[in-house]
Each structure stands twice: as C-alpha cells, then as structure tokens.
Amino acid sequence: MVDARQPVMTGGCQCGAVRFAIYAKPARLSLCHCRMCQKAGGSPFLALADVPHGDHAWTRGKPGTFRSSNTAERDFCPACGTPLSYRATGGEYIELTMGSFDRPQDLTPAYTTGTEAKLAWVDHIGTLPGKTTEELWELKDFVSHQHPDHDT
Questions:
Q1: pLDDT tens digits, residue range 32-47?
Q2: CA distance 82 to 90
Q3: pLDDT at 3
Q4: 113 strand-pairing partners
C-alpha cells in the first residue's frame, strides 16, 4: 500500500535496494556509544533518529533483521549491508541511522547514550587535521556505484 502523506525526509541504503520515508520530524536525535552500536555500525558510535513506527515506512525493498539482544532488533540492507535502524522489541519508535538519510546534514544530535563504552579519542575528532575526498584521492577516473541521495 502506498502512503498518501508527503514525507518529511527520506533515506536508504548505499546500493538503493532499501529505501524509507518518515512523515514527521524525528522525536529525538542522539549518538549511541554502546558496544552493540559500535559493532552494528562498524564505527565508534551510531547517530540515531527516533521516529514513531506510524510515521515511518519502508518504501522500497525489505531490510534484513538481526536480533542483537533479547530486547532489540537491527535492520540492514541484505544486499549491501548498510545499517539502517535499531528497534526495541515492542517499543513505539524505530531509531534510524542518521547517515542513511538523504540529507543527514539536516539532523543534529542533542544527547548521547551508552557513554560507558565511549572511546576516549572521540572527544578530539573535531581537532584532527582534515582533507576533502578530492584532496585525498585523485578522482578523475572515479565511478561511484552508490545510490544517489534521493528517491529514484
């Protein structure tokens, strides 16, 4: 069934096989440093946007699901592996990974959780020297196979 509402934001996986829409602004935006989120994202933390289940829809494809504990499930793209969400079983929210949104720059975390596993160096990320992708690699022959940041 197609949702007649206009999405507030959209997103999806890296290959485009799984897409989603949300129909209300996220209720909460957070960074989770817990060890399970570190492993699920293959990163030092996960940035998550909490959306009530009724304001979220998978609009293309169906994610795979891993039951990461007795109280939670995590959704991911079965084709490319992109982490897409965390869900407390029986909870009222789906927590979507902020990096999977088409416009992650429109989302700013407001608090952190799982701080018992926070890596000490995370506090210094903003002070590290940086380069753009083009400065790092010569991209003249670069061809991306990533799905564009919009619905197709």
A1: 999 999 999 999 999 9
A2: 23
A3: 67
A4: 32
Residues 6+ apart with CB under 8 A from 7: 21, 22, 23
What is the spatial distance between Cα 106 and Cα 5, in angstroms, rounded to a whole number? 20
The domain segmentation of the chain, as residue ranges, is 9-119+131-136
Query: Which contacts (CB < 8 Å, 24+ apart) does range 79-82 have?
Result: 79/13, 79/15, 79/17, 79/18, 80/13, 80/14, 80/15, 80/17, 82/12, 82/13, 82/14, 82/15, 82/18
Q: Integer distance in angstroms from the first to the last C-alpha of the chain?
A: 18
Which bin fits 16, alpha (ψ -120 to 50), beta or left (φ > 0)?
left
Under CATH, to which class is 9-119+131-136 assigned?
A: mainly beta
Segment 127-148, tens digit of pLDDT: 999 988 877 776 667 778 889 8
